[in-house]
Design brief:
mainly beta, five-stranded mixed beta sheet, 3 helices, globular, (wild Malaysian banana) hypothetical protein
Length: 331
């Protein structure tokens, strides 16, 4: 998504009682409108009254293909030709819990409620790799370190790196969280630092180059443990221009966006956003940060950094409409 479209998205004058009505060529909103219309009957059949559980399962790749998880299927919408494809598993694995494109968009990682994890070729819909282990906890978050190494965060607090090029895919285990890991993000500038946020209200910063102990050669210890959030940490994102700057967002009893110096773990700033913070997205080219929020205001806010003045904001498009940001900035 371009900065111009993002600005249009959050412009205050765009607020309408029935929701946002963007430009006709705004592919993201075209998809959402089409998707809601196509699957309204399915939601009614299942007696669902909230859209938030489906809309949060979104991942937009650098190829401008938006993936949306609905129950046990993934829908792909290609902005180039405005086509929609369905990826449907051959067997019942439970509802999808997380989806994430690889950096080169060659595969889509899809996690299921039965703890299975599949790597799917979007062109063919075939599973090219994956894991099946019913003894593992369900996956809550995913982050690609490279096109072959995937970091997986689970409901029981475990965080693990897997290299799908190897027979023994397990690389290392990150030991720190006590409950479910809601958010994971690798720093693309350095490629060595990982941030994680959890249901235990903790943020961890990990250094992939940090020596491990002789007793546990595949277990990494956190570099910094941050405990200042007062609710679930649903969102973390690295600044794309400063390798030592991390933003994190707290849940319904917190409402804060916090900024961290990852060299020493110091808090640089904390802003009360007024609602639970569900997702964060730095602009790659300007000093701006886009945040999405849940209760009570369900707003989408564009901030200037480091002043943290609001550039634009839109509220109550639909309750629970912005649980996750499934977009990315373009040049």
């Amino acid at each position: 998504m371009s900065r111009a479209r993002a600005r249009a998205l959050v412009a205050g004058q765009r607020q309408e009682s029935e929701g946002y009505r963007g430009e006709e060529d705004d592919w993201l909103w075209s998809l959402l409108g089409m998707w809601l219309q196509q699957h309204r009957s399915l939601a009614e059949d299942k007696g669902e009254t909230s859209l938030s559980q489906r809309l949060k399962l979104m991942a937009n790749g650098a190829n401008n293909v938006l993936a949306i998880g609905l129950e046990d299927a993934v829908y792909l919408w290609d902005a180039a030709n405005e086509s929609t494809n369905l990826l449907q598993p051959e067997e019942d694995r439970g509802p999808i819990t997380c989806i994430r494109w690889s950096p080169d968009c060659a595969v889509l990682a899809v996690a299921f409620g039965n703890s299975d994890l599949s790597l799917i070729d979007p062109a063919t819909g075939h599973v090219v790799d994956g894991m099946e282990d019913e003894n593992q906890a369900p996956v809550l978050s995913l982050a690609w370190r490279s096109n072959s190494i995937l970091t997986v965060g689970r409901f029981d607090g475990t965080v693990v790196d897997y290299d799908f090029r190897k027979d023994d895919m397990f690389i290392c285990f990150y030991n720190g969280h006590r409950r479910g890991v809601c958010s994971l993000k690798w720093s693309m500038l350095s490629g060595r630092y990982l941030a994680s946020g959890g249901q235990d209200k903790l943020v961890h910063i990990w250094d992939a180059c940090m020596p491990v102990s002789r007793d546990h050669p595949r277990q990494r210890q956190w570099l910094h443990r941050i405990s200042s959030h007062t609710s679930i940490v649903k969102a973390v994102d690295w600044c794309p221009t400063r390798s030592n700057l991390l933003a994190s967002g707290g849940g319904c009893n917190d409402h804060c966006v916090k900024f961290w110096n990852t060299v020493n773990g110091a808090c640089l700033n904390s802003i009360d956003a007024g609602s639970e913070v569900c997702a964060l997205l730095w602009d790659k080219n300007k000093s701006e940060l886009l945040t999405s929020h849940g209760s009570p205001n369900n707003q989408l806010t564009l901030w200037n950094y480091p002043s943290m003045t609001r550039v634009a904001e839109v509220s109550v498009i639909h309750p629970g409409f912005f649980p996750w940001l499934g977009v990315h900035w373009e040049v």
